[in-house]
Amino acid sequence: MKFQTLAALCALVATVHAHSDDGVFGRRHAQLAQKRQASSSSSTSTSSSSASIASSTATGAVNNAATAASTTAAAVLPSGVPATGANGVPPLSQITSGMPTGAELAATTTYAAGTTPTAVSGAPPLPSTFVFNANNWPSPDVPPPTDSTQVQEWMKELDGVTIPDIAPTKDGECATDPTAAANAQQNGWWTCGGWTRDTDITVCPDKFTWGVSFDDGPSVKTQELLTFLEQKDITATFFVVGSRCVERPNLLIEEYMAGHEISVHTWSHRPLTSQTTEEIVAELGWTREIIKTLTGVTPVTMRPPYGDIDDRVRAISLAMGLTPIIWTRFNGFAFDTNDWQVAAGNVNGIQQMTTFENILGNATNMDTGFVVLQHDLFEITVDLAVGYTIPAALSHNPPFTLKAIGQCNSFPISNMYLETNTQKAFPYPQNVVRNSTSSTSSSSNGTSSTSGSNAGAAQKGSAVSSRNFGAILPSVAVSAAVAFFGALLL
Ligand SMILES: *[C@@H]1O[C@H](CO)[C@@H](O)[C@H](O)[C@H]1NC(C)=O
Ligand SMILES: *[C@@H]1O[C@H](CO)[C@@H](O)[C@H](O)[C@H]1NC(C)=O
Ligand SMILES: *[C@@H]1O[C@H](CO)[C@@H](O)[C@H](O)[C@H]1NC(C)=O
Questions:
Q1: Ligand 2 center to residue 306 CA distance, Å?
Q2: Which of the residues are catalytic?
Q3: Is the pTM of this model over 0.85?
């Protein structure tokens, strides 16, 4: 089913906003992009935000070579980057906001209801064919209402769980909320300093292993990406937006059936720390619901949009059975390819590849593997992935091993879904402490429900301190947890 043109444009505006996964600078520029997009209102493609700002704000990570460049793309290509795009992708110099775009690609395979998935052992047959009914789903790209019977039912999952009494941030940004920023470490606020907890998955344990992730789809060129990944025999983790799943149900099903990991990335892509507890439950709950409706299974992981998580958002997510997965920060450098910045017109393809080369360079210096943020939302971001970033990583010396994030952490894919998980308590049961009697969660405060293995100080984001499952757990006070994680790793 397709939404009306106006709704599609609204979705575009929302998704341009949705691209700014990396903090204040990016988000403001994305907002600029969406304003211009709204005023021009001529495009119905999600391939770029606006040609008019393509050259105006190249203030991202520009290296000396790129700054000096005035001639050909080849002259400024970071080392190791293919000179021309693999797989029919245009030259890097042409990958820029406003570039010509192709038609949307539909799913190549449509699976009949009742088909048994082969990629996920023990998975239930696919549910009956999805028929969209606007009465059954929240409006796309806006926060779902919290007074629905569904949301009120999902709120009960928080019963007996201590949700830290942290006030919603102003808008999920450090600069606009000095009070929240001052408490960022105490509250484990990732956005503002990269603070993580033991329950966050932020790396792959093995050095030179890249945890591949794509956010914000399924979208116009997701099919191109799926075909490419299949050719390369790579599985990825897709952090899907509920509003996109409703639009493109067959693509979500194809991702799932191909053995990619499906994870929750909210319904409307708002910064979750800015939302009330009920709003967060609605965002996560509706996304979980559409994934389950389409595939028959429920993810046990989530990624907060913009990486915007604190201890309140964590506790809510964990109470709903969703373990947070963020991308790696190493020495303060977040492994965001900035592919979305190209679509937003803030940087060009060559500058994006410089950022990418910095990721690979830093990854080479890490003791562990790493998780990288990319997007399948725009044609541009898919072009960069299939034409440049993934080929560059595959031909890197020494080579990187590319895996989905659960896979790189040695989780069988069946354990990534509630219905097929053989560890029914997965993933962090000891962190969701429930009283036997139900208490009202919203009124409780005090320590995080993630007390226990991660009750200590928040950890500054880095591969060394971003604890990852049993691989590099802190040695103190967690021996029981280590034993438990050990079992989970099977
Ligand atoms: C469990 O109940 C006790 C007594 O009411 C309370 O002190 C404690 O905070 C509760 N724990 C949780 C996790 O809700
Ligand atoms: C790591 O990333 C930074 C940018 O944040 C870059 O300046 C540096 O050169 C990178 N290190 C390597 C070894 O590539
Ligand atoms: C909740 O927070 C208030 C204010 O910080 C504090 O006075 C009260 O003791 C706390 N209640 C619990 C159960 O922790």
A1: 21
A2: 215, 375
A3: no
Give the pLDDT confidence of 149-187 residue by residue, as tens digits. 999 999 999 998 999 999 999 999 999 999 999 999 999
Ligand 2 atom nearest the C-alpha of 61 is 4
Q: Which of 163, 439, 440 to mutate to test the pocket of ligand 1 (most atoms within 8 A of CB)?
A: 439
| Residue nearest atom 3 in ligand 2 by C-alpha distance | 358
Element (H, E) at 240: strand 237-240
pLDDT band at 458 (very low <50, low <70, confident <90, very high): low
Q: Which ligand is nearest to the CA of 328?
A: 2
d(C-alpha 389, C-alpha 86), whole Å? 10
Beta carbons within 8 Å of 135's beta carbon, 6+ residues apart: none
- Give residues with Cβ within 8 angstroms of 468, minimum separation 6: 201, 202, 203, 204, 205, 368, 409
Residues 79-98 pLDDT 10s = 767 777 777 899 888 899 98
Given a cut of 70, is residue 5 above it in pLDDT? no
For atom 9 of ligand 2, which residue has the closest CA? 358
CA 471, 432, 18 angle in degrees (round to 5)? 75
Q: Is the CB of 440 inside a 6 Å radius of any atom of ligand 3? A: no
**Within 10 A of 383 (CB to CB), how many other CB atoms are there?**
29
Nearest to 167 by CA among 155, 179, 151, 149: 179
Domains identified in the chain and CATH numbers = 1-69+134-490 (3.20.20.370)
Measured between alpha carbons, how far is 463 from 466 in angstroms, rounded to an integer? 5
Q: Which amino acid is at 122?
A: G
Q: Say yes or no: CB of residue 445 within 6 Å of ligand 3.
A: yes
Which ligand neighbours the alpha carbon of 354 most closely?
Answer: 2
Residues with CB under 6 A from ligand 2: 333, 358, 361-362, 365
